[in-house]
Design goal:
single chain, 300 residues, mainly alpha, globular
């Protein structure tokens, strides 16, 4: 039951994230990249609170009392996620975007290593092999022919990608740490409580920052409130699924299975945007499937 639960939650989260990215891309054209990015936090928070109310009502479980450990882990995860997002936005402005993105996709490997050190989430050797295979598949899908040397030679993009990956990895570790450090409650109430806490912290930090430095983008998100609400809901729903996954298994397992998002995004590009898919990308997606299949066989 636990195995099926984290798999279903992660797959749903991956689909929700692809949908949220589409919604945010539409908002970017109207209110800019920063304005569209903060929507996932500011407009996602009310939906996360609604999720918590519904979980409390239907399960009958009390909302867990927050501990110092939970606050510390969740705050660290919240800050790391904002930092990773900011670094990713900076990456999008570079000419070496593909190289940097390839390094960014090393996140599951970094999470696997950090999870052992920080949370004691030990993984078997077959699981580690599966993570490495799936990550290699993503890098194969991302990189273009002839970019292998650039992957190692361009130190700036490599450092940026690894730093962003480390931040997103730290966010995943922090959120899982916040969930499992709650003293009571089932996995669903603990996951949703931590989600509300993280979004509340992120919303508060971003509201202060944007009020001081980017007020125009903040006001713009309210002018297009219908689109902002849609993106906020999709972001909150995807995050709810991620947090459920984190409550049931290691962050490395969740983020590795989440690499199927690459395949979903390629499918959207092919069927909806009429973008061509190269043989190299097909090979990369096949490698991702092999890695994910090995992970599921190992961990379920």
């Amino acid at each position: 039951m636990v195995g099926a639960g984290w798999i279903a939650a992660t797959l749903a989260g991956s689909a929700g994230q692809v949908a949220r990215n589409i919604a945010q891309s539409n908002l970017t054209k109207q209110i800019g990249t920063v304005g569209a990015t903060q929507v996932r936090f500011l407009f996602g928070l009310p939906f996360a609170v609604l999720f918590l109310v519904l979980v409390h009502h239907f399960t009958g479980e009390a909302i867990p009392a927050l501990t110092v450990k939970t606050l510390g882990y969740t705050a660290a995860g919240a800050v790391a996620q904002i930092g990773g997002t900011a670094m990713m936005l900076k990456i999008m402005q570079t000419r070496s975007f593909a190289v940097t993105t390839a390094w960014l996709k090393t996140e599951p490997v970094l999470i696997a290593l950090a999870g052992v050190v920080v949370l004691g989430d030990w993984l078997s050797l077959p699981a580690l092999l599966a993570i490495a295979i799936a990550t290699a598949g993503v890098m194969l899908t991302t990189l273009k022919p002839g970019m292998g040397r650039a992957l190692l030679a361009e130190l700036g993009p490599a450092a940026s990608g690894l730093l962003a990956a480390a931040m997103f990895g730290a966010a995943a570790i922090g959120f899982r740490g916040g969930i499992i450090s709650l003293p009571e409650g089932g996995f669903l109430i603990r996951a949703t409580t931590t989600l509300v806490l993280s979004l509340a912290l992120q919303t508060a930090m971003l509201l202060v920052w944007m009020a001081l430095f980017d007020r125009q983008a903040l006001l713009g998100s309210f002018r297009v409130w219908r689109g902002s609400l849609g993106a906020g809901f999709l972001g909150a729903a995807a995050s709810q699924c991620w947090f459920i996954g984190f409550s049931l298994t290691s962050a490395a397992n969740v983020r590795t299975l989440a690499l199927v998002e690459v395949i979903l995004a390629q499918a959207v590009g092919y069927f909806w945007l009429r973008q061509k898919v190269t043989n190299r990308q097909l090979l990369g997606m096949a490698v991702i499937v092999i890695g994910v299949a090995l992970l599921l066989r190992t961990e379920v």
